[in-house]
Please model this.
Amino acid sequence: SQQGEEDPQALSIQEGENATMNCSYKTSINNLQWYRQNSGRGLVHLILIRSNEREKHSGRLRVTLDTSKKSSSLLITASRAADTASYFCATGRIQGAQKLVFGQGTRLTINP
Amino acid sequence: DGGITQSPKYLFRKEGQNVTLSCEQNLNHDAMYWYRQDPGQGLRLIYYSQIVNDFQKGDIAEGYSVSREKKESFPLTVTSAQKNPTAFYLCASSIRHNYGYTFGSGTRLTVV
Model:
């Protein structure tokens, strides 16, 4: 059962532009996390935002969370070729099984 | 350096064979997880363990088995009952629920 749904499924932009990816979810959450996956590799944890937070920054990453709309966005500023990867959101639920549930991911391509 | 190690990187299985994928972590994390990823898809949870000698089924546990005899180790066996095992398998660990996950580099399993 997939909780998060990323939008768009694929995004292609020019190097230097900003990239925005969105995530929607269905149930109440404790936190929402974003991960990056380079092709054929494991996932790398980028940032975690808790349900009582609205915005969080880490370097060129900015994450927002709107619990009333059950949605989050990940903004990557001044994109670089090395940012080419798939990006996944994952939600930690308040109740139920103690596990993260991942979305389908957004495939981001940065063109030089 | 602390981390999580999966082996082998590539694994080939004949029809009717059981195979075991290794996952070891030296992060002193309590929780460990196994996910399956099919091409272009998100992650689906197979099994997870919050503590030694205890584990729970995830969303797609049929045809798989696990053990958690040591805190550091969480091996996954893909049995002959799993009819479509060809996939990318990812192991992860976390200090506890609702914290970020650390992923291994994955095992690509192919049925020949």
User: Anything to note?
Assistant: The longest strand of chain A covers residues 29-37. Chain A has no helices and eleven strands.
